[in-house]
Design a protein that fits this description.
Blueprint (H helix, E strand, L loop, with lengths): L14 H8 L9 H6 L5 H15 L5 H15 L9 H18 L18 H14 L13 H5 L7 H18 L10 H16 L4 H9 L6 H15 L22 H11 L8
Helix pairs in contact: 3-4, 3-5, 4-5, 5-6, 8-9, 9-10, 9-11
Length: 280
């Protein structure tokens, strides 16, 4: 069955509590963020290079495959050191993370599709690195990620009409895709990142509903209010870094996964900028 970022596991009555209970198991190690910002560590430059390589090599496969590959990359780097002075290893890690993500999403491809010049690897070499990554991730490939919690937090939204919900979800999706580049967000649980992206979306599109939505989410027994508000402040910086779409538009159908109504978004952004006092 194809892996869906929004629904990592089969439906069940205990789906939501289960996701909150196990989300820590699908995060980078606790020391990862500290290693990234350490002045004596080369890990940040390593991450940047692999990150860029994943985006470059996964063009044409859609943003959600890239997102999953980067999720694998962060979890792998947090538990496995990369030797310095061997740039080919960084490329191999990137190719292997993409390959695993595409396999999880049941996407047809060959290893040669992921090569775009530079270092070249055969399928055997890639498979060996995949096994190393799988071991580091403890074979937890159905990642519990921020997209897994979007529908849960949207249920707190006051408006129940489908167009409003769809607009909110589409903008939150774009913000989440952009947020992977910000290492400061790696310290937060996927659920907190999800809620923060949704609040940032509401701030832009439905500013008059922001306060009530934030209050409702903060009342959830699964949410740490202090962490949420801290993450939300950081997420606002991500959201404000331009409003161009990072989604690969591969269809004209209106679905949360692949469409953003840019005309409506630009109109709402211009209106929301006059509501700066709604941020907190």
């Amino acid at each position: 069955m194809e892996f869906d970022l929004e629904n990592p596991f089969p439906p069940s009555k205990e789906k939501i509590p289960s996701l909150f209970n196990i989300e820590n198991d699908h995060m980078p190690s606790n020391t990862y963020i500290h290693s990234l910002v350490s002045a004596s560590s080369s890990l940040l430059s390593i991450r940047r290079e692999i990150f860029a390589s994943i985006l470059d090599s996964s063009l044409g496969f859609g943003p959600f495959s890239s997102y999953l590959a980067i999720n694998y990359m962060d979890r792998f780097l947090s538990t496995h050191s990369i030797p310095e002075g061997k740039p080919w290893i960084l490329k191999l890690v990137a190719i292997s993370c993409i390959s695993l993500a595409l396999k999880m999403r049941k996407t047809e491809f060959s290893v040669s599709d992921l090569m775009n010049g530079g270092f070249m690897f055969d399928s055997v070499t890639v498979e060996r690195m995949e096994m190393l990554i799988l071991g580091a991730l403890k074979w937890r490939m159905r990642s519990v990620n921020p997209f897994s919690f979007v529908d849960y937090f949207i249920s707190f939204f006051k408006f129940k009409d489908q167009p409003s919900i769809q607009s909110l979800k589409e903008r939150a999706t774009e913000i989440l895709l952009k947020s992977q580049n910000d290492i400061k967000l790696l310290e937060f649980k996927p659920s907190i990142i999800s809620a923060s992206a949704l609040l940032s979306s509401a701030y832009e599109l439905f500013p008059m509903q922001l306060q009530s939505l934030r209050d409702e989410i903060c009342r959830s027994t699964f949410v740490n209010k202090e962490n949420l508000l801290h993450c939300y402040d950081l997420m606002q910086d991500v959201a404000m870094e331009g409003y161009e779409s990072v989604l690969a538009f591969e269809s004209s159908s209106c679905t949360p996964a692949n469409v953003l109504d840019l005309h409506c978004l630009s109109s709402s952004v211009s209106g929301s900028q006059s509501n700066q006092n709604m941020k907190k």
